[in-house]
Specification:
297 residues, alpha/beta, eight-stranded mixed beta sheet, Rossmann fold, two-stranded antiparallel sheet
Length: 297
């Protein structure tokens, strides 16, 4: 597997930006990979997708982006080294975490870059904390995910299964013993990723990921996406079988002035289609930075 000319097997943790824990007052301890902004450049907060982490989702893009921007890649709650989920996974909690992170780091208004689930969190962060958002780059995401009857049935059924699984774990399983579905993934696709990447995936709580799927099923920005008033770019994964490209383009059409950057890849474009995705991502971030009145190097 090659990622922007680099074999994933040769990708090591040492190639990532420095990582550290960040205390978010009243919320818990988060975790970020961060690289300072070049002089006069804006900061991007990179928000990963479902069952990923800040490092897994964004590692192909780190080097190209750090040449132009400051970078903060965080782990969402319940994922990787993020704040543990105690109870129901809520998109609003993730949005509040992002706003608290921006405040804790003192970066001022930032450009939020969200992938899939991260795009949902980015939209909600603008909705709840507009003063910390200078722009949005929304990748492989949508305004809603449960609009059709069969989708509503799926997400409602998932919520019921999640409740049952939570009760089972609390009543019968010792801490840490709940099966890790990442091992099933490993058996299916083969262990083509380096050890650090598998370790990252194992850090994500399985029930938190299921809860996140249920949460995006409840999410909708349909009524207010047209009110987004910061420069926005939408990166469309044009061969996506998980989030319809039609829905992605409708998101772009709903946001005044949003630019569209298409990538000929499926939903795993951030890594598996990085040769196409990363240049489109850089172009999208540069477009937003220029329209926001900041300057990308």
């Amino acid at each position: 597997m090659n990622v922007v000319g680099l074999s994933m097997q040769r990708m090591t943790e040492a190639m990532l930006p420095p990582g550290r824990a960040v205390e978010l007052p009243g919320r818990g301890t988060g975790y970020v990979y961060a690289s300072p902004a070049p002089a006069g450049a804006p900061t991007l907060v990179l928000i990963h997708g479902l069952w990923a982490t800040g490092s897994l989702n964004w590692f192909p893009a780190f080097a190209p982006l750090t040449n132009r921007f400051g970078i903060v890649a965080t782990d969402l709650r319940g994922h990787g080294r993020g704040i543990p989920v105690n109870g129901r996974f809520r998109v609003a909690d993730c949005a509040d975490d992002i706003a608290a992170l921006v405040g804790a780091l003192g970066t001022g208004p930032v450009i939020l870059v969200g992938y899939s689930l991260g795009g949902v969190v980015a939209q909600m962060t603008w909705r709840r904390h507009p003063r910390c958002v200078a722009g949005l780059v929304l990748c492989a995401t949508s305004r809603n995910f449960g609009g059709r009857p069969q989708e509503r049935v799926f997400f409602q059924g998932l919520s019921s299964a999640l409740l049952a699984a939570n009760l089972l774990r609390r009543s019968r399983e010792p801490a840490g013993a709940f099966p890790q579905a990442v091992d099933v993934v490993a058996d299916v696709v083969g262990r083509r990723m380096p050890a650090w990447a598998w370790d990252e995936m194992r850090r994500t709580d399985v029930l938190a990921s299921l809860g996140a799927i249920a949460a995006i099923g409840r999410f909708s920005s349909h009524e207010w996406a047209g009110e987004i008033d910061v420069p926005t770019a939408v990166v469309v994964t044009a061969r996506d079988h998980f989030i319809s490209p039609v829905r992605q383009r409708k998101l772009a059409a709903a946001i005044p002035g949003a630019t569209v950057h298409e990538v000929p890849s499926d939903h795993g474009a951030c890594v598996l289609g990085a040769a196409h995705f990363v240049p489109a991502l850089v172009a999208a971030c540069t477009s937003v930075a220029q329209r926001a009145g900041t300057q990308a190097a």
